[in-house]
Design brief:
The complex is a heterodimer.
Chain A (H helix, E strand, L loop, with lengths): L2 H6 L1 H29 L6 H18 L8 H35 L4 H20 L1 H7 L7 H4 L6 E2 L8 E4 L2 E4 H23 L1 H11 L1 H6 L4 H27 L1 E2 L3 H16 L4 H22 L4 H15 L15
Antiparallel strand pairs in A: 1-4, 2-3
Helix pairs in contact in A: 2-8, 2-11, 2-12, 2-13, 3-4, 3-5, 3-11, 3-12, 4-5, 4-11, 8-9, 8-11, 9-11, 12-13, 12-14, 13-14
Chain B lengths: L13 H27 L19 E6 L6 H20 L6 E6 L7 H10 L3 E5 L4 H14 L3 E3 L15 E3 L4 H15 L5 E5 L3 H14 L3 E6 L8 H10 L3 E5 L2 H13 L5 E4 L19 E4 L10 H11 L7 H16 L5 H10 L1 E3 L4 E3 L12 E6 L2 E7 L2
Parallel strand pairs in B: 1-2, 1-3, 3-4, 4-5, 6-7, 6-8, 8-9, 9-10
Antiparallel strand pairs in B: 10-13, 11-12, 13-14
Classes of the chains: A mainly alpha, B alpha/beta.
């Protein structure tokens, strides 16, 4: 174990951990909100994120981000953020409509919905991984080869954003990490306030507490569930945008590992709890970074899951443990 | 190249179950395959055209490696190189040799069942492959028991030839020669005083990085292991910058190398990034500016080398692109089998003896194998990334 290295580089490692943890947290929101309202783990949420990364990438490619700089680049990035959010929201709504609503209507057991989620996840991921064939059927693969050609390997937008970085002591602070952390925390605070204060937020909390009573009080449950999926999708879109800004590379199966980690973050913080998702994500990110420093990067995932088990042993409902419904008004 | 990235699109624990099943089925099928092979050796005395001297008929040459999957980019030139050799043979042969592709996706998990399938098809007289070290390790025992001669154009893990499989051959130098060559380049050409070694925990990457680390000795200032499929390397980058290394060696494949080099540059590392043949793929250039100046070692001959000029122009005419990594090696590997078929060899036993005795000039090197299947004649070349292209620098002597 390398304690010297950990302590002499604590600020640098913590920033790296927070930046990735913030992305975990944003994805974790989707798991946590759907769980809060439906008591259902939406395993296809990782694909909602993955489609967002591609929407971001394609927008940047289509608008010529590689040659742009200054104001033009910022405009392109804003368009890409918008596209990622729209794409993720669209996929999330589609999931709700196709994979869940029919099951909920027929009062299917939760296990069935879980299997449906896993199935939807495979379909969505493979559809992206086989997009060259899919476009080939309609004869567009040549026209779109730039977008669909690398169907099963990494797709990169490296070199588009050349962000400034600052050296402070022995810490290299990347402006992208700062943007990622600030944007993620900002989005979380906004969402938290939305759920606590707005009419729609109250509807979500009421449905989470007791769907039948909420319906009697005039909350439309179908619409509330839709909005929950929509919000989860929008947040995954922001996560996808920030992820692409930081990592610059995506692939059809990128959602799998990130999805597992974000789900872990949600459970760590207390599933169904918005603030828990933020805390869980950040704690998980920092723990991974410190663990990598201490034991070697190959132990990163081990550290993450050992942490989860240990915390659940002592706090079985997660760090903050509250559910969405019980959040104070 | 070594053990390829395992299939990463599988979800959940189902994969464990499935793997056991595959191994189980593989074992059953293996026994079947063996009995088939046993029958096969006494077969067709009345085959007709298989008299000595004339070319043998109705035979197949197999490719074994990734045609699809995450490492498909590395499989394509190998397939096309071998395809070219077969096409040229067929152009003026009395009976054509069929070229069959077995797509392992580069995954050691898929390899055993596929190898059993190959061993069970008595018409397959030889295999160009397996492409990667991981799948070679998994498929090797099955080929050895089935008596299927293999010539790999790209598997470089040194231990592969130490298993006593008499069917194993490779048409290029292994990592025990590539590793020291990379280390030599780092010492003599880069004149590095402090090198940081990273590997990806794969059969190929970890093996190669270990050799480089041992050869460099005291000038190694640190090492770290990442995992195939990871995308955030911030802790590794911090380790590199903290060690103040002037050179980083990475043993692994292009998928991770592309992301790693970008994050290293963003983290403030401005030394030399050195990698090996697993990164020599056009997809690595996706890293754009960050990739510039990267040194890539490879036991593969540059397509600008005069020895392969003819091959390169024929290849380009056929496939519309310059020969990729290991295309020429695959062409050589296929040529050995085709020469055997041309001499009328029609059993695996005779083909194995033929390959073991083979000693002719190929386009990449003198093609001759020692008892363990290693090539007698080995060259390692250095390449560099310049202006968005991988260009040869010359042989590492």
């Amino acid at each position: 174990m390398n304690f010297d290295f950990l302590f002499s580089n604590l600020p640098q490692l913590t920033i790296g951990g927070l930046a990735f943890g913030a992305i975990y947290a944003l994805i974790a929101l989707g798991y946590t909100m759907v769980y809060g309202v439906l008591q259902l783990i939406n395993f296809a949420h990782s694909e909602v994120f993955m489609y967002g990364t591609f929407a971001m990438l394609w927008t940047v490619m289509a608008l010529g981000g590689a040659d742009a700089d200054g104001v033009q680049l910022i405009a392109i990035l804003i368009a890409a953020l918008f596209a990622a959010m729209m794409m993720s929201a669209l996929i999330a709504l589609l999931l709700e409509r196709v994979a869940y609503r029919p099951l909920v209507k027929k009062n299917a057991p939760r296990l069935i919905a879980l299997i449906s989620a896993i199935g939807a996840s495979f379909v969505l991921a493979e559809l992206m991984g086989l997009r060259d064939r899919v476009t080939g059927w309609i004869g567009l693969d040549d026209d779109l080869s730039e977008y669909v050609g690398k169907a099963r390997i990494n797709n990169s937008m490296a070199g588009v954003v050349d962000a400034p970085r600052w050296e402070i002591g022995n810490v290299t602070l990347s402006s992208i990490d700062v943007i990622v952390i600030v944007a993620a925390v900002g989005m979380m605070v906004l969402l938290d306030q939305f759920v606590r204060r707005s009419r729609l937020g109250k509807g979500i909390r009421a449905t989470a507490q007791d769907p039948e009573t909420a319906a009697l009080m005039g909350v439309n449950p179908t619409r509330t569930i839709q909005i929950t999926f929509l919000i989860g999708g929008l947040m995954a879109g922001v996560a996808a945008f920030l992820y692409m800004l930081k990592i610059e590379t995506t692939k059809y199966d990128v959602g799998f590992l990130l999805g597992v980690k974000a789900f872990t973050a949600a459970v760590l913080g207390g599933i169904g709890n918005l603030r828990g998702a933020l805390l869980g994500g950040l704690v998980l990110g920092v723990a991974e970074s410190w663990g990598s420093a201490l034991f070697g990067t190959e132990w990163r995932h081990v550290v993450a899951f050992v942490l989860l088990v240990v915390i659940l042993l002592f706090r079985p409902t997660g760090l903050l443990g509250e559910s969405l419904g019980k959040a104070r008004a | 190249m070594g053990g390829a990235a395992a299939c990463r699109n599988d979800k959940g624990s189902g994969i464990v179950l499935r793997l056991n099943k595959v191994v189980g089925i593989g074992a059953v099928a293996l026994t079947l395959g063996l009995s088939l092979t046993a029958c096969g050796t006494t077969e067709d005395g009345d085959g007709g055209s298989s008299s000595n001297g004339d070319a043998a008929c109705d035979l197949k040459l197999a490719f074994f490696g990734p045609e699809t999957g995450p490492a498909a980019g590395l499989g394509k030139p190998i397939i096309q190189g071998a395809q070219l050799a077969v096409d040229q043979y067929n152009a003026d042969a009395e009976c054509e040799v069929e070229f069959v592709k077995f797509d392992s996706q580069g995954s050691p998990d898929e390899a055993p069942s596929l190898a059993t399938e190959v061993a069970g098809d008595e018409k397959i007289i030889g295999v160009v492959g397996p492409a990667f070290s991981g799948e070679s390790a998994a498929a090797g025992p099955i080929f050895a028991e089935g008596g299927v001669p293999t010539v790999s154009p790209s598997a470089t893990n040194p231990t592969l030839s130490e298993n006593g499989w008499d069917t194993f051959h490779r048409a290029l130098g292994n990592d025990a020669t590539q590793g020291p060559a990379a280390a030599k380049y780092i010492q003599d050409t880069i004149k590095s005083e402090s090198t940081f070694v990273i590997d990806d925990a794969s059969e190929y990457g970890a093996g190669l990085a270990g050799i480089v680390k041992d050869t460099l000795g005291d000038t190694v200032v640190g090492n770290d292991t990442i995992q195939v499929g990871d995308t955030d390397f911030s802790a590794t980058v911090t380790k590199v910058t903290d060690s103040k290394a002037d050179t980083v060696f990475f043993g692994g494949y292009y998928a991770e190398a592309t992301i790693l080099v970008g994050q290293l540059r963003k983290g403030g590392f401005d030394g030399t990034f050195v990698v090996a043949d697993g990164v020599k793929d056009p997809a690595y250039l996706d890293a754009k500016a960050a990739a510039e100046g990267t040194i890539i070692t490879c036991p593969c001959i540059p397509d600008t080398d005069p020895a392969v000029a003819d091959f390169a122009s024929q290849y380009e005419e056929e496939f519309g692109e310059a020969p990729g990594t290991y295309a020429a090696e695959a062409y050589d590997a296929a040529s050995i089998f085709l020469a055997g078929i041309g001499e009328g060899i029609d059993t695996r036993e005779d083909m194995l003896a033929f390959v073991n005795e083979y000693d002719e000039k190929g386009i990449t090197k003198q093609l001759k194998f020692d008892e363990s299947g290693e090539p007698a004649d080995v060259h390692v070349y250095a390449y560099t990334v310049k202006d968005g292209a991988i260009v040869p620098e010359g042989e590492i002597e």
